[in-house]
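User: What would this chain look like folded?
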Amino acid sequence: MNQFVRRLKGILTGSIFLPILTLLLLLSVSSYAQEDAGPTPAYAVFVANNIWMLLAAFLVFIMHLGFAMVESGLTRAKNTTNILFKNTSVVAIGILTYAIVGFNLMYPGDFSIGQFFGFAGFGITSPEGAAGLIDYADGGYTYWTDFIFQAMFAATCATIVSGAVAERIKLPSFLVFTVLFVSLVYTIAGSWKWGGGWLDQMGFYDFAGSTLVHSVGGWGALVGAMLLGPRLGKYTKSGMKPIPGHSMPLATIGVFLLWFGWFGFNGGSVLSADPGLISLVIVTTSLAAAAGIIGAMVVSWIVSKKPDLSMALNGCLAGLVGITAGADVTTPLTAVIIGAVAGCIVVASVIIIDSVLKIDDPVGAVSVHLVCGIWGTLAVGIFSTNPDHSFMVQLIGVVAYAVFTIICSLIIFLVIKMIMGLRVGPEEEMDGLDLGEHGMMAYPDFQQVAEAGGSTMSMASDDMVGSRVLTESEQKS
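Assistant: Here's the prediction, encoded as structure tokens.
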């Protein structure tokens, strides 16, 4: 009897019975739904769209951690706390300003000044009842889903600027710039395309933001880096001196987080749970990133005679930025071409900006986001499967965003410079912004020790004070 019970229990809990039980449950639920009418197909699509867009928003949010890791990893240890503080603040500023004015500037509905400027009022308020739910956006998603997804994009522009001005900008000055840049410049520029403005009417196309997000942030980064000038010791009479970052593992983790988040950045920009289009976008996004790595790896290896990890990482980001404008209107083959070209371009751009133009960009933000953002936007006019897309219209959009963003960034930075100042003092820069701006170190158990040709990390103890190692006689005393 006991043996029979054990066998019966084994059948009921076995791998064969479980699928059968699951199938029976599904059939019974289906039968009940048919009898009870249940949700309409339109409502089911509405729910699926919302779930996917919210998941995509979460992925975009994770990208900010990726940006923080890349920027801190490619800069020196003595500025890590400052960089992490900036990246944390940028997210908060981006979400709050987008709620106060940004969302209604970017999506004003009716424009008050031609198709260039419109404002729907302060704050965010969902229409009551079905108007803010299934009737919103033609049944695509809710008002709140729309807001939070777009809000996650808003802070990215200022994050791009953060990398280019790292290790020498005053924290309060950067935060003021972030508030103005994210709440006004990014949103007004975004309304020209995504808000139905003049560039959208002209036929300009930017699927997920190669120009609207990345190039806009890149232009701001370029202006900021030029006005600040290079870090101390970067350019000397003997030539350009590389200033290596303190943690390539952090930078690598950051790039993989960004690649992961980009599935939501591009995939969510479909603005629906359309399985065919989402899967295409994720495939083209992945292929471009992979091709960007290979392109940058090959070119940098040829140029420097050594495989450069930082260039390969930037190649990945270059491919991602490049495909963002046309991820939904390119074939897998053209996605590979766009990514590979972006990977090659980013290496050349870093070298030219760093060595020829002598603009100090610690993380290569201008090369990755601005230069490759321009390439990706123009690539839509070359490779798009939509015959309505025009290279000349894409070029007009690139130029328009360049002029607008450069002028706005110059005004903001120059006003801040006159009122607050932009750059920290030489002594603070040498000691590190962690101590000067925050009074704390990211690695309190370690001491940065300058050595010829680079820097190392040595274990700190009670015998170490400030930013130097005590001598033997000092230790005895």
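The first strand starts at residue 235 and ends at 236. If you want, I can go into more detail on any region.
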